[in-house]
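Can't attach files on this board, so I'm pasting raw text. These are the components:
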Amino acid sequence: DADVTQTPRNRITKTGKRIMLECSQTKGHDRMYWYRQDPGLGLRLIYYSFDVKDINKGEISDGYSVSRQAQAKFSLSLESAIPNQTALYFCATSQGGNYGYTFGSGTRLTVV
Amino acid sequence: QKEVEQNSGPLSVPEGAIASLNCTYSDRVSQSFFWYRQYSGKSPELIMSIYSNGDKEDGRFTAQLNKASQYVSLLIRDSQPSDSATYLCAVTSNTGNQFYFGTGTSLTVIP
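---
Top answer:
Structure tokens for the assembled complex are below.
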């Protein structure tokens, strides 16, 4: 089993729909992150969490919300999806600043 | 100014040659530096980390860091077609709480 699991792998949804992307990890890491990747724009941070009670906005949090249900689970929600949220979304975990991220396999989201 | 900048490429090198990838960053306080490899449609994979000025070698990969000039580079010796991918440079923020990523350099190794 993968260390960081994202579901679903692919999703097509309609404008205005609510959608949740889920991430679970078996690394035992406290730090979890959500990024989106767009061609030419690279990876941009949406939200991050260092603890179940700790949630922090990244550079592009508007239109998104998150929930840290447990140390191992971190979900990203799009309350009302819009087409410019079409992107590849990655969950990542880390032990801390001097350690790199472990990425999940990604969720390809298309909003039509 | 972006926190991390990379040439987008594409960079093409013949098989067996040295590929050189460069990255500059804006925050002088950054402490940790990483290189990730990302194959098309896949997730980024950590290949090198470096924290001190100088060179760090791991197999065919060498990371180089110059904090005074605020650049970090990755050399790939004896390039193989399987090295064809996008390489992402990542730098820790001044708080150490997150990484900033460059947009990546696309590398193609020609057999």
